[in-house]
Amino acid sequence: MSLFLFLLLVALVLGIIGVAAHGLFYLLIIGALVLLVDLAYVALRFRRGGRKHRVVR
User: Fold this and answer.
1) Does this model's pTM top 0.85?
2) What's the alpha-carbon Rg for the chain, to the nearest Å?
């Protein structure tokens, strides 16, 4: 879950910088692509996620 949140934060920061800085529109595009990859990762993770991790004591 921490990877999801990290990639979400990276996408947000790249998007904000891409919008705010003149001439760095490509960062907005990269941020959108990172967001799409992040959402696909979470979708695949939750699709397979029926198994619970077993705690070994």
Assistant:
1) no
2) 16
Q: At 28, is the secondary structure helix, strand, or coil?
A: helix
Judge contact between 4 and 42, C-beta under 8 A. Answer: yes
Tell me the C-alpha distance between 56 and 17, whole Å: 45
Ordered by start, the domain boundaries in the chain are 2-48
Q: What is the pLDDT of residues 27-49, one digit of tens each?
A: 888 888 888 988 898 888 888 76
Token look-up 């696909």 returns 40
In contact, 11 and 40? CB cutoff 8 Å: no
Sign of CA dihedral 7, 9, 12, 16: negative
